[in-house]
Amino acid sequence: MAITAAISVPLTSPTRRTFAFLNNLFPHTPRSTLPTPPRTFKYPNSRLVVSSMSTDAPVKTPSASFLHSRETGFLHFAKYHGLGNDFVLIDNRDSSEPRISPEKAVQLCDRNFGVGADGVIFVLPGINGTDYTMRIFNSDGSEPEMCGNGVRCFAKFVSQLENLQGSHSFTVHTGAGLIIPEVLDNGNVRVDMGEPVLKASDVPTKLPANKDNAVVKSELIVDGVIWHVTCVSMGNPHCVTFSREGSQNLLVDELKLAEIGPKFEHHEVFPARTNTEFVQVLSNSHLKMRVWERGAGATLACGTGACATVVAAILEGRAGRNCTVDLPGGPLQIEWMEEDNHVYMTGSADVVYYGSLPL
């Protein structure tokens, strides 16, 4: 069976290139197309053809027929990323149950044998009066309550599905509660992430509260080292650290994240496991962060983690209420407003390509 995919590759310059791909793949191993130049592969029946390259025209919204297609046995998807935190997006508006299982999501997220992603996100019908419902399966098959970078990608995907133009917002039901993303005129997405949860038992953490029922700059022993941590929930649990014994300001680039991250995630004081943010303070309004995500490991960005980081920095007296947070994949602008106690996140979300795979 022939599989058709369109691949749109956003560039940093004002112009964009649009690649229209039509590949007739041999029926034994159908797969999604990749953004590569024309070439003939080892197997003569597998050929990728490139046409309609343009460097002058802006990207047009792909025809709805592709993503809305419902051929039996095939899954159509869009690949998006928010600062390198990448996701497979699936139009699931016709059903309240995800089209694929957590086990299938693990296969899709595999970067060697699947599409490759940090998670799979489903656009489902809204409940409790909301416009849409968002569910996510992590790359390990677990289901988090929410994902900040994911909800920005979700918003851009919905805008495409519904052909929404200009600045607009909608309501989204998530495991963390109501989330309201707003797609701005410049293409960025501003998200009202709601109020941070600070009560220790609600984060949740077993660490004893030491400041108004919250855990702020508390000592946590990990692998024999004393770390100073603040615990915050943005609908999902976060452990934020700026320092450890003998080092009052972390140099995050020097951390061996793959070694220390899992020890935080699975520490006994976090009954639901935890995301962990390691933060370096550059100024009162500028932070640098690396993250170990629960269920996904080291990622290039974490939106809820950036929000939790700014909340923790304020609680520890390290930063003001409006900060730029540098992540390996790029910056996010985070503001914790006094007026409504809500945290607002602003950042990019970009389409990578569209594809289809056999179920």
TrEMBL record:
One GO cellular component term: chloroplast
Catalyzed reactions per annotation: (2S,6S)-2,6-diaminopimelate = meso-2,6-diaminopimelate
Its EC number(s): 5.1.1.7
Major site of localization recorded for this protein: plastid
GO biological processes: lysine biosynthetic process via diaminopimelate
Enzyme class, spelled out: isomerase
SUPFAM superfamilies linked to this entry: Diaminopimelate epimerase-like
Pathway assigned in UniProt: Amino-acid biosynthesis; L-lysine biosynthesis via DAP pathway; DL-2,6-diaminopimelate from LL-2,6-diaminopimelate: step 1/1
Localization per Swiss-Prot or TrEMBL: Plastid, Chloroplast
This protein's UniProt keywords: Amino-acid biosynthesis, Isomerase, Lysine biosynthesis
Gene Ontology MF term list: diaminopimelate epimerase activity
Family recorded in the similarity comment: Belongs to the diaminopimelate epimerase family.
Protein name (database record): diaminopimelate epimerase
Annotated organism of origin: Sphenostylis stenocarpa
